[in-house]
Fold:
Amino acid sequence: MRAQFVLSEIGVGLRRNLTMTFAVIVSVALSLALFGGSLLMRDQVSTMKGFWYDKVNVSIFLCNKGDAEQDPKCAKGAVTNEQKEQVKVDLKKMPVVEKVEYESADDAYKHYKEQFGDSPLSSSLTPDQMQESYRIKLKDPEKYQVVATAFSGRDGVQSVQDQKGILENLFGLLNGMNWAALAVMALMLVVALMLIVNTVRVSAFSRRRETGIMRLVGASSFYIQMPFIMEAAVAGLIGGGVACGMLLVGRYFIIDHGLALSEKLNLIQFIGWDAVLAKLPLVLAISLLMPALAAFFALRKYLKV
Structure:
């Protein structure tokens, strides 16, 4: 009988404050969708880092004749065969180096034509203008500075470049977008909490006579508060379910179909369905607990009978 009464009161309360209940559901859904999306964005950035950092190389560019005339770092002339061989030997001695590949000027010219053949500059370039280089794969991409310190400024070396630095700009942008999503999520969460508190206040005020009678007949505070707490929890859980649906639909249409980024950007390793499904229980738990706790603390102040 008591359970039936509590359930009937929940239904009455939700219908009585239908507009505010709908607002709570929408705000909870949006805030938790942003929360789940931010978690997935963080996983995506981590996945991309692991995928790309494993493939980035450190490049040691060697001086050619053109550099000897224009670049102070190559003031002593183009790199000699002895200098090239010494760089190679020293690289293979370094414990942080996993693999060393040599790219000649002809190879560099060929690769440039393959990638930028449509560029207006490609017709004016000749193989002797391209730089010879060593492409080094490190066992730990974070150890770039070890190679840079060892070879920067050496005779015959024009520059040492780390491809990871290019990726850092991309990951910095993605992280910035993630923080922006978290900021919007926090704002929406505050709005949702305020709506929950106001909904509970209105519901408690509209049923003050019933709660007063229940108090007179000896009902406990927890028994009186339970319908209000459950109303907020049910509304929040519905919002959490909507948020989960938004995350699933977003993953489906953005990555697999619709935009189909997995097909258009096949160089990027996207997070799988397992990452999305792993976040859903957390979203649902927050959607249930957050409104219930907000209602509980609101009732301590506003439910005075």
